[in-house]
Amino acid sequence: MDLFQCIYYGFSVSLELGNLFACFMGVFIGTLIGVLPGLGPVATMSILLPISFKMSATSAIIMMAGIFYGAMYGGSTTSILVNIPGEAASVVTCLDGYQMARQGRAGPALGISAFGSFIAGTIGVLGLMVLAPPLAAVALKFGPPEIFGILILSFTMVTYLASGSKLKAVAMAILGLILGTVGLDPIVVTPRFAYGSITLMDGIGLAPLVMGLFGVSEVFLNIEKTVKQEVFQTDLKGLLPSKQDWKDSGKPIVRGGLLGFLLGILPGIGAIIPTFISYALEKRLSKHPEKFGKGTIEGVAGPEAANNAATAGSMVPLLTLGIPPNVVMAVLMGAFLTHGVQPGPLLMKEHPEIFWGVITSMYTGNALLLLLNLPLIGIWVKLLKVPYGILFPLILLFCLIGVFSVAGNAWDIVVMLAFAVIGYLMKKFDYEPAPLVLAFVLGRMAEESIRQSLVLSRGDLLVFFKHPISCVSIVLAFILILSPLVRDLLKKAIGGARRAEG
Amino acid sequence: MKRYQISCALFLVLFGIFICWEARKLDMGRVVKPGPGFLPFWLGLALIIVSLALLFNYGRKKIDPSLSSQDLWKGLHWEKVLYSLVALLLYALFLETLGYILATFLLMVFFFRAIEPQRWFVAISGAVVTSFITYALFKLWLQVQLPVGLWGM
Lengths: 502, 153
What we know:
The complex is a heterodimer.
Chain A: H1 3-14, H2 17-35, H3 41-48, H4 57-82, H5 91-102, H6 106-139, H7 144-160, H8 166-180, E1 183-184, E2 191-192, H9 198-201, H10 206-223, H11 243-265, H12 272-285, H13 298-321, H14 327-338, H15 347-350, H16 352-383, H17 388-407, H18 411-428, H19 433-456, H20 463-466, H21 468-482, H22 484-493, H23 495-501
Antiparallel strand pairs in A: 1-2
Helix pairs in contact in A: 1-16, 2-4, 2-16, 3-4, 3-10, 3-14, 3-17, 4-5, 4-6, 4-13, 4-14, 4-16, 5-6, 5-13, 6-11, 6-13, 6-16, 7-8, 7-19, 7-21, 8-19, 10-17, 10-18, 10-19, 11-12, 11-13, 12-13, 12-23, 17-18
Chain B: H1 2-24, H2 38-59, H3 78-98, H4 100-115, H5 120-141
Helix pairs in contact in B: 1-2, 3-4, 4-5
């Protein structure tokens, strides 16, 4: 099949009524949780994991992906109207978006972030379509040593790009790896760290881990301080940006889209860092950088485009290599695995309906979001007025239902609560959860690949340097660790990201 | 603040020692043919080293400047977190005896009333509505398994 046939086939899958409905539900729920502070895409996707058992694998993945990019849309709404980012990826949007709202230009700000997201989403999806097939073809030739090399590079980048202390990030990554060894040994099936508990024998589940660290702990942090929100009273008429607005934000959208997509592919980046880089880039390229932070539309358009395109970019390593580059993709990988589908180079051959269906659904989803967002912004704003005292019990209840229904095991709730406490303390002591979760997921893959490599090479430790791809990856990882020069340069580029990401 | 950071790093050191200790009980294998205890042992050791490096940094007073020196729990209602945690634990322990609807009703009343106080009427009716609607949504419509409890609810 050539690319156009594939795309046609993809649309024929994603436009099926059931899949279209799943896509709609995904982007709808995504926007909803993007608007609501305190519940992000990671926790939401894990909550919905058990519900997706009843759906087909294609519908389930389409819905999950929709939640991710839908949340990017929703997050910008609160940034602009309330100056509270609904999502971490919308932090930058506050800078100029809220200022625009204060100047009575909330409409164009919301409008341009919706249109910008749509355009950038398109760029991202196109990039994914073009890039994924050849990458998957290359990845087909990968053996355990190559996978191990890429995993090492991923680990390094994840801790390298973590906000705050690098040492703490490394400690958290190691902790994640240790947590990943709980349960049955992958090769000789001896129980490790199970202490006779059947719940632990199965290994720590991704759902209780993620929901504890990202869902419940977030609620804990919110209820101890009294959350007060004021929605900015503004005229929401005239959402369509003017001709001048388009002229100002056209290029930033395209640049943000390309930047977001390319950066999103890299491990450890996610959707947050591209927004900061895009903002910095637009400020530098602008003829009037002094207007940034005072309500200039480029400052909204660029970053909003970047975070949307990054969601498509981060699908690339998962769909082609089977390696999730960030926490959201790790949860998405969980959704693949619960349906008995292994994401990776074989996905395109074995499950073309999922591969092309999901990719094209992202395009459909972006169109749905545009339709959903522009007329419904008024409703989302009303949602912001629901007091947290009503909201947080519901968030907790959804986490409880979600984690219980994975295996019908009440002890999983206890595991989730344990991680909620750990996550709460981690936030207090300024430790980041993202390296822990990624290491937890990648750890099993790494252990398998290292042990398989050693078996295949009959115990030759140099096997990782005899295969070019693993050798290059490992050398790159070392360069990354050792070169303080690169570190300083990167630090400058993502200076803002370090503070606000946490 | 520094005290907290140090105790945190110390805890990580101890945890690393614990992991190494436990991993020794498993089959370690050799470098060329690692057993189940191999990776945990080295990970535990790595954790000890990294946490010691953290401690060493604190010793040289290299603390993140972004961290405030204030007490982390100052002016916050941390007791709400404690109450919620206990309530959630009790929920987990009694969920299968009480059944979903009753357990959820009790939990919701507690949350609506005790953490961010609503009026009794709001709390009770909110709890009734929440437990029945989620039951209908998840159990009846989405056919997610929820515990029925002793009274078949």
